[in-house]
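Last lecture ended with a question: if I hand you only a sequence, what can you say about the shape of the protein? Today we answer it with a concrete record. The protein is Thiol methyltransferase 2. Below, first the input exactly as provided, then the predicted structure, then a couple of comments.
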Amino acid sequence: MILGTRKLSTFGAAPVQTRRSLMMKLRMNQQSTEHNASKSNHQSSLDECQKVMRTDHTGGWEICWEQGLTPWDLGQPTPVISHLCAMGALPNGRVLVPGCGSGYDVVQMACSERYVVGLDISDNAIQKARELSSSSPNMRYFTFLKEDFFSWRPKELFDLIFDYTFFCAIEPVMRLAWGQQIQRLLKPNGELITLMFPMDDRIGGPPYKVSVSDYEDVLHPLGFKAVLIKDNELAIPPRKGREMIGRWKRSLAQASL
Ligand SMILES: C[S@@+](CC[C@H](N)C(=O)[O-])C[C@H]1O[C@@H](n2cnc3c(N)ncnc32)[C@H](O)[C@@H]1O
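The predicted structure:
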């Protein structure tokens, strides 16, 4: 090999090929640093949130919303909900989203065949949801209400209730009351869709860990049967493998309404 024939770029920088792979490595390092930074931001927001919940006797939700401590917020509709809407695979009629937060899923599901009610105990959450959706073209098909899910008694029942990160957010001792209220609010032939998350080994909460049997323990005695339990392949990457979808129907024989 003749020395000095390798082409060096200006200022002795690496050859083109090597430079490209260096750039790629740099980009990957940058992405991984950004990913780690956002992971640690997420974790510290979650820690802060849990601290507030432990110290505030009203549950801390309002304070979290006020301070922007909302690590659960996807900033967009839940992908599996968008998918089910696009596939025409959701029941029509009246829909309830308890603990709706910023309300992306409420707006996503609302259409001329579906009237969606988003419910949240936090004033700030409801205000944010209203602001975010104020210019939605489908706004006459949804509403946001500031109510406590457990004590709310609406005049009309629902064809579908969608629960995502609400079951895991409430104190585990409230789960039976959650089931009873779902039963009270659903029409006899109504459907409950649960996105079951987080399915892991964490201690404490919120979010509290959940398992399929946690839902079954509450729902089976109330006459609900699962028509589908499946891994949620459309979960966002950080939740993949820790989230399942459940579709539950009330068995008419045991319905109390
Ligand atoms: C973990 S966040 C989930 C928000 C939303 N589902 C999402 O995935 O972005 C739980 C939400 O439930 C609301 N919440 C807590 N207790 C509630 C209650 N008793 N009635 C109605 N909403 C409640 C909180 O204010 C909060 O917005």
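Comments.
1. Residues 16-55 form the longest helix (40 residues).
2. The radius of gyration is 23 Å.
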